[in-house]
């Protein structure tokens, strides 16, 4: 971990992807992040993929470097402990990230009664508080009908929980921003981050909604064609699929050079009376005429012939590869200094990453694995809430904590 | 905008999605964000979708609430102005977000010579500095082969630039975190955020890489089936597609109740000797047996019959709808307080969002549109760099600024 956020204490009451990634990013920049869960684990504690012994590889990936406290949240005493944790004193504490309901026992008004300057970042599904998850919000935004081959009408969900991930990182930004405001005298606040608003705003930020308002319909499905520029997957003589991309004039020129089709493209430009170099949109408009030239050039050579020429020529391209191939790819996993092999709660040892960003001036500290569930219950009850050991023993005996 | 970051001055030298969204999130939380571009616009200035007059709806979506300075970055004097802007004095300045190359005229070491405590967040493609964009990094991570119907082997790219978006939000988090560290005496630093590392780390955080190491292969393509739990799109009697999701025991129970198939599922549990309620993974393992029960229940009713029952029963579900339908959906766009109709640089007036997060305690200020290119050149040269008007006039005359 890095130490930018050293000294901060963040409490996380969370499940699934968005709120846990928020806590993960904070922990990997040096904050102390205390996640509380129900005894036996929250709804994400057995989420697939699983290790052979049933431990969740998902859970241990998303909770690296955190402390874990287990509480019986079905009982008033357990809920009160959660409230006290979220609002415990300290200049750099009173920072809470959660996806618990906005109107439940972790409602902002209830917590503020315990700590007036609390910063609370709340992940939500729909903004009105109703249930929504990445899959259902995504379906409501039209993306599954824009995704996939043009000759297939079935909606295609994304495999990557993109809205959850964006929400988690945005929540980390919001939490640190609210802390900065608080240290400058603005007091605390709740920031709500509903997936539905994150999705709706993002589709507008990228121009999708303005386009739909202008044209009357959403962008049609077009397979892997890059909208408004030139790009697609092409197949080499040996059946490899490569993604080629040319948005800028430079990317376009380099692609034509490396493929040796500058002359054919010039002839097409003359025929159509256009210049593809300076207007990437024209490449998109006339892509049905351009594609055959590229398809033939790719089909004439093997990937082993094309790819060194692409790299030497500064072409923007990428091979489609499987994740198992990526694991041997030195650009991604193999020897990547982000990764370190550590032993995880599942008992398995495998490479795991620290902070996603890199700071050339700073030393990366060790990658810290996820805790065992409840591993830090006693430590946190003692150090953060100041409970005496006899009281902690009572809570254990009565099954309020574990 | 909100005012959490009021008083901060951030300079952005950027293009495309990741770095501009970082600046956008900062601006919408109250920071002054000054984006500089080449005279005539950077490589994203004409990016589709376009308005009828050729203005980019994409550019004006991603640069809302920023100031714009236009410089001739091909000339030494223009480059020097960019360096001076990024490093201009001020306690809450010296904050720079960019996707310019790590070893070029905006390299951290060059800028640090002008301002020792500079915070610089740098979006990159591949971590080694070579060209990579969302499309090509995604292809290298295996996701396109995991996405789409199981009966089609073609790789499916995502339409949403998920890696760019995650990187942009993460950069906003990193920038504010580094500012917080600087105000606490840690000095400045560069934080690099290569899409390749963001992608590699995320696939590990979610358990995809551990799963691949354990099984020897990446997760197979499985259409819209939710991995390790129960969920998929189902078709109603009138041909509507609805996404149904059941990860938690509660979600499962409510789905069975609303569809009236509890008895059939219990019979299947008895036959198989399993309990689906307590182990969502078993629902996935046996999904080929479960699907026909759900398909029949969906096919027996129209969407108009099913959806009120789903809502009343607390089912986690969502309709697939187009973006044009979403624009009339009160949960997303219509009457959503995030959105305000403003006039944009294209000359068009249409609804655009402010900050993606909501702060119930604070007033949302007005949504500020994107600037015209170079709209703030003179103001910024005068106020930030302190140039006298005669000098600014000379720079205009010589075409160094516009």
Description:
2 copies of one chain form a homodimer. With 402 residues, the first copy, chain A, is α/β, with parallel strands linked by helices. Chain A folds into 2 domains: 9-203 and 335-397, Rossmann fold, CATH 3.40.50; 230-319. Chain A contains 17 helices and 11 strands. The first copy, chain A, has helices at 18-28, 57-62, 76-86, 108-112, 134-140, 143-146, 162-183, 195-205, 208-215, 249-259, 262-272, 280-285, 287-299, 303-312, 323-326, 377-383, 389-397, and strands at residues 9-13, 32-38, 67-71, 95-98, 119-124, 189-194, 230-235, 241-246, 316-319, 339-343, 349-353. In chain A, the strands form 3 sheets. Chain A has a 6-stranded parallel β-sheet, sandwiched between helices. In chain A, strands 7-8-9 form a 3-stranded antiparallel β-sheet. In chain A, helix 1 (18-28) crosses helix 7 (162-183). The longest helix of chain A has 22 residues, at 162-183. The two termini of chain A are 28 Å apart. The model of chain A has no long low-confidence stretch (mean pLDDT 97). The interface between A and B is large, with 154 and 154 residues.
CATH architecture verdict of the largest domain in chain A: 3-Layer(aba) Sandwich
Structural shape of chain A: elongated
Q: What is the CATH first-level class name of the largest domain in chain A?
A: Alpha Beta
- What name is given to the CATH topology of the largest domain in chain A? Rossmann fold
CA-CA gap between termini of chain A? 28 Å
Task: Kindly state the number of beta strands of chain A.
Answer: 11
The structural class of chain A is: alpha/beta
């Amino acid at each position: 971990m890095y130490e930018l956020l050293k000294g901060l204490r963040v409490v996380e009451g969370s499940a699934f992807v968005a709120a846990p990634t928020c806590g993960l990013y904070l922990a990997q920049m040096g904050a102390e992040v205390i996640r509380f869960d129900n005894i036996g684990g929250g709804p994400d504690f057995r989420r697939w993929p699983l290790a052979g012994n049933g431990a969740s590889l998902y859970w241990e990936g998303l909770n690296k470097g955190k402390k874990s406290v287990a509480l019986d949240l079905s009982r008033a005493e357990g809920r009160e402990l959660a409230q006290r944790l979220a609002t415990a004193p300290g200049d750099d504490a009173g920072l809470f990230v959660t996806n618990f309901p906005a109107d439940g026992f972790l409602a902002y008004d209830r917590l503020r009664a315990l700590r007036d300057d609390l910063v609370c970042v709340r992940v939500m599904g729909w903004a009105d508080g109703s249930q929504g998850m990445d899959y259902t919000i995504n379906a409501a935004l039209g993306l599954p009908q824009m995704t996939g081959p043009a000759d297939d009408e079935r909606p295609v969900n994304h495999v990557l929980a993109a809205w959850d991930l964006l929400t988690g990182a945005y929540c980390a930004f919001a939490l640190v921003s609210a802390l900065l405001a608080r240290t400058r005298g603005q007091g605390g606040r709740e920031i709500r981050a509903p997936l539905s608003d994150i999705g709706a705003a993002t589709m507008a930020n990228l121009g999708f909604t303005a386009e739909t308002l202008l044209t009357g319909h959403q962008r049609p499905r077009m397979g892997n064609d890059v909208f408004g520029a030139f790009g697609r997957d092409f197949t080499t003589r040996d059946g490899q699929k490569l993604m080629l991309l040319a948005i800028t004039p430079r990317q376009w020129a380099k692609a034509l050079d490396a493929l040796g089709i500058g002359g054919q493209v010039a002839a097409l430009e003359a025929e159509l009376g256009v210049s593809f170099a300076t207007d990437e949109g024209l490449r998109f408009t006339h892509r049905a005429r351009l594609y055959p030239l590229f398809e033939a050039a790719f089909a004439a050579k093997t990937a082993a012939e094309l790819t060194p020429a692409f790299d030497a020529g500064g072409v923007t391209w990428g091979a489609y590869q499987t994740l198992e191939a990526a694991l041997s790819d030195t650009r991604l996993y193999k020897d990547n200094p982000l990764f370190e092999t550590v032993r995880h709660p599942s008992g398995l040892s495998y490479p795991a990453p620290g902070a996603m960003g890199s700071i050339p001036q700073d030393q990366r500290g060790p990658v810290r694995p996820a805790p065992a569930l409840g591993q830090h219950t006693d430590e946190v009850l003692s150090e953060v809430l100041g409970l005496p050991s006899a009281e902690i023993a009572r809570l254990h005996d009565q099954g309020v904590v574990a």
